[in-house]
Amino acid sequence: MSAPSEAATVTATVAAAEPTSAVDSVLPKMRTMWWEEGLRARADAGLRTLAQALPRLVGTALRIAWRADRARTAIVLSCTVLAGVMSTAGLLATQQVLVGLFSAAPTPDRVATALPALVVLAGAAAVRAGMGIATGYALNGLTPRVDREVQRRLFEATTAVRLDAFDEDAFADDMERAARGMDSVIRLVNAMMALAAGTIGVLAVAVALVVVHPLLLGAMLVATVPNAWAALKTGHLEYRTYLAGSVRRRRMWILNRLMADRLTAAELRAYGLRGFLLGQYDTVMETETRIQLDLARRVTTTNALGAMAGGVAGGAVYGLLGWLLLDGAIPLAAAATAVIALQAARHSLATVTYQVDALYMEGRHFDDYTGFMARARAHVPATDGTLPAAELEELRVEAVSLSYPDRAAPAVDGVSLVVRAGQTVAFVGENGSGKTTLAAIIAALREPSGGTVSWNGVPFAELDADQLRARITVVSQDYWKWPFTAEVNIRLGEAGAPVSHERVEAAASRAVAHDMIMQLPFGYDTLLDRTFADGQDLSGGQWQRITAARGFLRDADLLIMDEPSSALDPRAEDALFQAIRDRQGRRTTILITHRLANVRHADAIHVLHEGRLVQSGRHDELMAAGGRYAELFTIQAHGYLAAD
């Protein structure tokens, strides 16, 4: 079972919360979210860790990009390298331009001397610009290809795993983190490319400075390291503060939704929750504001220290340049080139610093993606079954049990029963008795932990799973409101198969949905989601009719209907159960309902209690025998008796 939603967690504190200034005593503790993992990893990582992880992350990004599109990856890499070469050529050409212009010759001669280097400088700048355009074009084409590859692989996994995988908290958390990791793939590739560009820029400056004078290379490091240290330090502070504040931001997001959502507006007003929620907002924001002000102070202090140290180092560099000039070790033109190179080095080093952070963080998220993909394979059903699933003659359940990961008692415990073709069979019992879980096992949606289910004498595991499921239709009590038109919502019952509009209407009529649909603004073409333009809301009962129509459309050998009428009015409920009774003798139906009057016609009624099958028989037999069924039926019947 998954953890309760955060919105529900916050709402649950309304009754018990007491005024306090401490955030954690007002709002409950929240678990770490998937998108925090990369931030936590970066916040805990030192420079040594970053340096050790860098080669692996760069290699990972390159492999992803290469698999997605080799041509564009090659273009990006070659253009990045060539742009770096052009940077070096540009700096060296700048030096030659300055040498020519600063010479002692007449002005025309100086211009003539500098002209070839100026042409080289212009050419290098033009080539760099062209490389930038080519890189941008290649990346624009590479991005959707990388996204498509990783997204498709993730969705192939999430739609193929067994249903029981979603019962595990660890699997659900892994899947959330994998979704964030999926988004990180292209960011990882982009960060790697940007890091390469920044690194090549630094190397280009280093080459140019070595050509001018070897001492200037050390001077560059002295001048740029303080600012680089400040950038890494402030990034570390910001990451740690951001991570520490993630719970507050999530609470703010929840409170924003609770105070400004159409779904909560009525209850907010009905219970007078405005003051309570605004008080929650003030409590969280007071803490957040105080922490952000403290962060601003610390970041400003760190940057100021870096700037001062960098200023002192820069002064030392300029002192070195002056000494080299006075000593005659370098000409004035070379000194000017060194100044330009040092400015370029600062920019490139800042890029490298930022991209190292980004590469590490996104790499950790991508590790979540690859880890999930590996673990998901363990949850994919075995594909050994190859036998065809013929038309249903007999369904046999033998000593079937199933336990959920977080529950001590089994949800289904040693149940055995037989369902024959054409029968209408009912599962009844109190909440939590195992009815829905047993139905999911019969529908081949869950694998039992013990026992077997067979279709015409053949165990489910030996049958072709797709063929088997094609002969079964499930109308679930936990239906999903698919954001499509009314017609498409019904057509989902035969997704992928050609279905005429007449069949859709016939299924809707059997589910008492046709007239309701025709009253919608666009009939069957009405979009059933208010998120979109002209979308419409349906009531719970109206959605239940749409869901039942979806089940009737397939006209499968076995129809499982789990609480199909819980939100229907009496007239619609009677019509729906008449449609179910029409299947009797022709098709097989398993019916789960708490309204026991609707199962009196069933060929067999199976009564479950705490996962065990405690009674079986027809209505009259069970009433005559007494026991749990007779007790439940009598309690319901008393509610309809007129008072004396």
TrEMBL record:
Q: Which residues form the ABC transporter domain?
A: 395-635
By its UniProt entry, which Pfam families does this protein fall under?
ABC_tran
| Coiled-coil annotated residue ranges, if any | none
**Keywords in alphabetical order:** ATP-binding, Membrane, Nucleotide-binding, Transmembrane, Transmembrane helix
Q: GO terms for molecular function, please?
A: ABC-type transporter activity; ATP binding; ATP hydrolysis activity; ATPase-coupled lipid transmembrane transporter activity
Record's bilayer topology term: Multi-pass membrane protein
Annotated ABC transmembrane type-1 domain residues: 74-361
List, alphabetically, the InterPro entries matched.
AAA+_ATPase (IPR003593), ABC1_TM_dom (IPR011527), ABC1_TM_sf (IPR036640), ABC_transporter-like_ATP-bd (IPR003439), P-loop_NTPase (IPR027417), Type_1_exporter (IPR039421)
Q: Which domain of life is it from?
A: Bacteria
Where does it primarily localize?
A: membrane
Q: Which GO terms describe its cellular component?
A: plasma membrane
Q: Where are the transmembrane segments?
A: 73-94, 114-139, 185-209, 215-232, 304-326
Its annotated compartments are:
Cell membrane
| Matches recorded under PANTHER family | ATP-BINDING CASSETTE SUB-FAMILY B (PTHR24221), HAEMOLYSIN SECRETION ATP-BINDING PROTEIN (PTHR24221:SF646)
Q: What is this protein called?
A: Multidrug ABC transporter permease
Organism from which the protein derives: Catellatospora methionotrophica
